Amino acid sequence: MSTNINNIVRPLGNLERFFQIVHDIDYYYNVGLTIRYKIPKNVSLPTSTSIPDEIKNKILRILYPTLEQTILKEPSLAVSFANLHTSKPLFVRLLEIDLNRIVRFVIVNDDHDIEQLLEEEHTTKFNVEDNSIPLWRIVVGIKRDFNIKKETTNWNLIISIIWHHAIGDGKSALVFYSSFNESLLENLNKNHSLQDSFNELKSNITLPQQSTIPFCKPLEKCVNIKFPFLFLVKEVFRDFVLPKFLKRKLLKGYWLGDIPTYSLSKNITKILLYSITVEEFKSLLSQSRQHNTTITSIFNISLLFSAYHHLILASNKDDNISKDAKKLAPFDTIKLDTCINLRPYSTPELPWTQSGIYVSDQFLIYKYPKPNNTSDNDKDSYPELDFWKMSREFREQLINRGISDSIEYLGITKLILNDRKKFENMLHKKIDGEIMGRENSVMISNIGKFPKILSNLEGNISDNEWTIDDMIFSQSSVNFSSGITISIISYEDKLTFSLAYQINTISHEKVVRFGEGIVKCLKFVAKNENVTLQDLI
Q1: The pLDDT of residue 154 is above 50
Q2: Cβ atoms 158, 124 nearer than 8 A
Q3: Which band of pLDDT confidence, cut at 50, 70 and 90, is reported for residue 167?
Q4: b/e string for 242-278 if b means 16 or more Cβ within 10 A?
Q5: For residues 61 and 201, is the Cβ–Cβ distance under 8 A?
Q6: Per-residue pLDDT, 415
Q7: Do residues 43 and 59 lie in contact, with contact meaning Cβ atoms separated by under 8 Å?
Q8: What is the spatial distance between Cα 34 and Cα 491, in angstroms, rounded to a whole number?
Q9: Whether residue 466 has pLDDT greater than 60
Q10: Calpha distance 34→260 (Å, rounded)
Q11: CA-wise closest residue to 148 among 34, 44, 278, 50
Q12: Would you list the DSSP string of 115-159?
């Protein structure tokens, strides 16, 4: 597709360009939302290891028009890149999209299959040089028929949308979900019986030259990002002037993974999925109100409780961690990177329905206190931590700190992205200069609660409705930022979260136990008034 004045949308903003570059140099790839559906009985599911074309076509007769309507509602789904190797890369509007090129089918029977699917997607780059395709793709996963009777899960089909971070952050997942599911209900209302649908299957869609809905503005046009001179001086000094032995001294005790990022040639993402029951989540909501805190705070403190056992103590006893990691031992500190939604701080305030990248980071450091005694009895040698007090303090800290540090952190992107080659070199040097190639222990991306979309249309679609069972938010490992990335989502009082990490940088067993420890802590808190570190052994 040629780039001309008629389909140029606008130049990439600073943060958009940042994610465009880190994608191209294999530091971070994409974001994903997976919706697990229970589809009606009138769609026969496959009984073999392959999916017959007949089944695919029945699904596509609903999916294609649904995607077409969704694209018309969300202009970010109708763009690609142009002029990537210049000083001003562009968003350009696509005038046609062949959905057949961005939709694929797979068999998925359980969480393990979905984990493998997401690992593949979160390690696969977009072909950004081809500006005839959009910056997102769809995977349709279908469960084999004979497994439905054996499994207790309600879902039998998944729709997974993977998008380039340059067109949307975690909050954009809510926008994509809302538009997609509204369009899905409209099409299900029109097609009462997929079994009898013989409509022509069209994958090519033609789009108007201009969208009636404005394309999102770059973050710097919505939030006042000032020149962070003192912040920049401090960062430059720490990253490029401070000798490595002094950095090591400053980071003494920080858990930042087992093996440095820069020691690996490829960023391959590993995904793990976890969840708690509806009853447990409702109990946590009740507990959060009773103790004047939030689900976000409860989750973060559960993370810290689990990290003490499975990242801190486990690494202190691990003889297989790298020499670089051992130089930071003994470990006693976790540094959290918490994503902050900046839409409420924009002028004018951006609604939740606005997709795009309006996010920054807030960093919180927690150093575990020493145990009150050093008895040989393991149960007597843990620090005494007050779960609910920590939860309230975490909530207050997030509120009181505001976003000034986050805004300054973003301000650096304005200064360093003018020359792509210099930025790449700077990022390489920054990672090579870090003790472990990363600055943080865990990044938490909490995108909150997703509402149920109800049909306001005439007609009865109950026999043909696709019912949502739950959702999964996931993303690529961020190899230059944090050892583990946690992505959280809740729908209809069902909470799921995914853990992502770069393969071979952390022991797989250690990450598995860390995720299980978070679930164990959440379950314990849901059933008990308080929890101690001893309770999680």
Answers
A1: yes
A2: no
A3: very high
A4: eeeeeeeeebeebbbbbbbbbeeeebbbbbbbbbbee
A5: yes
A6: 59
A7: yes
A8: 12
A9: yes
A10: 31
A11: 44
A12: HHHHHHHTTPPP-TT-TTS-SEEEEEEE--HHHHHH------EEE
Range 78-98 average pLDDT:
94
Give the helix/strand (H/E) hosting 324: helix 323-326
Q: Is the model's pLDDT at 214 over the cut of 50?
A: yes
- Per-residue pLDDT reduced to its tens digit, 97-145: 999 999 999 999 999 999 999 999 999 999 999 999 999 999 999 998 6
Q: How far apart are CA 79 and CA 132, in angstroms?
A: 9
Share of the chain above pLDDT 70, in %: 84
Helix or strand holding residue 37 (H, E): strand 30-38
**Res 65: pLDDT:** 95
- Show me where the domains of the chain are located: 1-450+463-476+494-537
The two structure tokens encoding residue 335: 């540094």
Q: DSSP class of residue 420?
A: H
- Token reading at 513: 């136990």
Q: How far apart are CA 202 and CA 313, in angstroms?
A: 57
Q: Which CATH superfamily is domain 1-450+463-476+494-537 in?
A: Chloramphenicol acetyltransferase-like domain (3.30.559.10)
Could you tell me which of 453, 491, 448 has the C-alpha nearest to residue 471? 491
CA–CA distance, 283 with 276 (Å, rounded to integer): 11
Residue 160, token pair as written in the block: 């997974």
Kindly report the number of other CB atoms within 10 A of residue 238's CB atom: 16
User: E strands, 342-412, where?
Assistant: 359-367
Beta bridge partners of 106: 141
The CA distance from 270 to 257, in Å, is 14
Q: Which DSSP string do the residues of 183-231 spell out, in sequence order?
A: HHHHHHHH-S-GGG-------EEE--SS-SSPPPPPGGGTS-----HHH
How far is residue 100's CA from residue 1's CA, in Å, rounded to a whole number?
17
Largest Cα–Cα separation, the chain:
74
